[in-house]
Design goal:
It is built from eleven helices and eleven strands. The chain is α/β, with parallel strands linked by helices and 328 residues long. It folds into two domains: 185 residues, D-Maltodextrin-Binding Protein, domain 2, CATH 3.40.190.10; 132 residues, Periplasmic binding protein-like II (D-Maltodextrin-Binding Protein, domain 2), CATH 3.40.190. It starts with a strand and ends in a 22-residue tail after the last helix.
């Protein structure tokens, strides 16, 4: 059986792409794409048999009965998000609580990074997404549009910027008050003092968030075409086993680099990063499996409905076939 497999080049996925991990009787046709290109293909075309998928887009499509995929609880991308809140230097936005009622830019309203960031604002600071004027579009280069249509309540404003504009430009001009960024804006990286992080010591804030919630926010999971599962009911369990093995290989490779006698990664404070991670999160800090992530999945589903994305409250068990619920 030859199956198309599409993910980005995460270290925890690459063993399936390069053949270090395989499934008996299955040959993978490998496609490695950045998620900005992959996700519109996944939700609009369902082009690949097995694909990395934004959990926010997936919950939205499940709630509408529109998903061509079912998922396995292999969470190939996770990220803390306190580091992604930006404001203009000298503005009235000095803390996350100050974002209530402001004009905020975000590349896509429905993107998973924004789902978790809005959830953080709501749960921790009482900031409702409905009171914010949202602007969507490219972060600092190119053109970007929502990959899925939105069905928002009357009075809620999610307004696309013009093609050719960027959210970074709007922030620097003062046309928006803040920016939710999945990666640092280019002007910030270039040292422009006009763009500042709202959460200055974001590392400490993220560790405190993990200690309080137990969450390491799930960004992306692996999805497999439903029609393929109907014909091959054992495939989800086999895939979950393969992705788990690939993750284990990546974690062992990283451990060997970390503990090696020479610094093989171009990262000066690798030891500090690894030791802080292990101290805060323990050795199993990238968990796969449903049971290990149930509360986090419930929260993502709740956020999706509260933020007017999901058409209804999705139960987390709806996201996966029954055969993988007790696996891993």
């Amino acid at each position: 059986m030859r199956l198309t497999l599409a993910t980005w080049d995460h270290d925890r996925c690459m063993p399936l792409h390069n053949g270090r991990v395989s499934i008996p009787g299955v040959e993978f046709e490998s496609h490695i794409l950045p998620t900005g290109k992959l996700f519109p293909i996944a939700v609009q075309e369902a082009r690949f048999d097995i694909t990395e998928l934004s959990i926010s887009s997936y919950i939205l499509q499940v709630s509408r009965g529109e998903s061509a995929y079912t998922a396995i609880p292999a969470f190939v991308s996770r990220s803390f998000r306190h580091n992604g809140f930006y404001a203009r230097a000298g503005s009235s936005v000095e803390t996350l609580a100050d974002l209530a009622g402001k004009r905020i830019g975000v590349p896509e309203y429905q993107m998973t990074a924004a789902l978790w960031m809005r959830g953080l604002l709501s749960d921790e600071y009482g900031v409702s997404p409905a009171g914010i004027h949202w602007r969507t579009g490219a972060l600092d280069t190119g053109v970007r549009h929502e990959r899925l249509s939105l069905d928002l309540p009357e009075g809620m404003v999610v307004e696309a910027i013009r093609d050719g504009e960027t959210l970074q430009d709007l922030l620097l001009r003062g046309d928006i008050d803040a920016l939710f960024a999945p990666n640092p804006p280019s002007a910030f990286l270039d040292g422009n003092p006009e763009i500042v992080r709202i959460v200055k010591d974001f590392g400490s804030a993220e560790r405190a968030y993990h200690k309080k919630t137990g969450f390491f926010p799930i960004m992306h999971l692996i999805a497999v075409r439903k029609s393929l599962v109907d014909k091959n009911p054992d495939l989800p369990v086999a895939l979950l086993g393969a992705f788990t093995e690939a993750r284990n290989i990546a974690m062992q490779d990283l451990r060997e680099v970390w503990l090696g006698s020479a610094n093989r990664l171009s990262l000066p404070w690798l030891n500090e990063a690894m030791e802080k991670t292990m101290s805060a999160m323990g050795p199993d800090y990238w968990p796969y499996g449903y049971a290990q992530n149930q509360k986090e999945l419930e929260t993502a589903c709740r956020y999706s409905m509260e933020q007017y994305l999901a058409a209804r409250l999705v139960a987390p068990e709806e996201l996966f076939p029954a055969c993988v619920m007790d696996a891993v």
